[in-house]
């Protein structure tokens, strides 16, 4: 297969100071002597050190969560090998997070985390094939579109021109052409889109951009690489590792689900939150407290403390270790201390059509003002 041409160069360099400060306490775990067990021990120590530093940075002005779409997802992916549910599919709700803060010089910032273009995301190869095999009457029952990114921003009185950063934990399913524009006409869109977010930069790990330039067969069902042919390279801010963006706002590299996976970490009035798609339910970080069929037993019998979201198993050990990093960073929920303030960017959602997959606990939203 011919490698996909991408709009960035391998040698591109970013001045990290332009988007915050590098996190030195979280290092590249591949440099740790020993095997994956040694890296797991190191990740706990590093996470504790970073957590102490991070809470001293302050809190953002506000964090708001916005429902975008609820859709089906294979149970064997979302709950890995742990679930004993009879339902082949479960439901997940994709949510946008809107984070606002001020820089030390008073400059206001707006970050959109997981601003998915739901309409174009459905053409991701896996979901496109699934839709083709699903009758319309069934699809309408299984998919609920709540509101668009722009509808939510209008409700929050945020003009798209005010948005500084777009960020995803990874670029599975994402088509960014409407958001950041293109350098050439797009036949499927009927025009050459002007950017909806004219000043926004896409924060992404350099590792993921490199992987997208020549996708492995295990990766191809989940990306839309062709949609990146004509996007402007200057719209991307490729980073290496973890960065504090502002008071109480950080990007932490969490490889595994994809090589360049990254998590959003927030310090709020209720403590530290972490958000990513490494797991699909808060109880997947503490499966011993789950009432879903199979999870607690599986964790006990296999001696594993987390349940992965495993549609792509690029580096399973690294994903496990990354989830433990997230688990170490997050505070316990004030609603139920058995569970952590981990907010899945795609959260498991109860549905009568999917017996055995109703979560024991859900966050539903983060509201920090």
TrEMBL record:
<dbReference type="InterPro" id="IPR051013">
    <property type="entry name" value="MBL_superfamily_lactonases"/>
</dbReference>
<keyword id="KW-0378">Hydrolase</keyword>
<dbReference type="InterPro" id="IPR036866">
    <property type="entry name" value="RibonucZ/Hydroxyglut_hydro"/>
</dbReference>
<comment type="similarity">
    <text>Belongs to the metallo-beta-lactamase superfamily.</text>
</comment>
<protein>
    <submittedName>
        <fullName>Uncharacterized protein</fullName>
    </submittedName>
</protein>
<keyword id="KW-0862">Zinc</keyword>
<keyword id="KW-0479">Metal-binding</keyword>
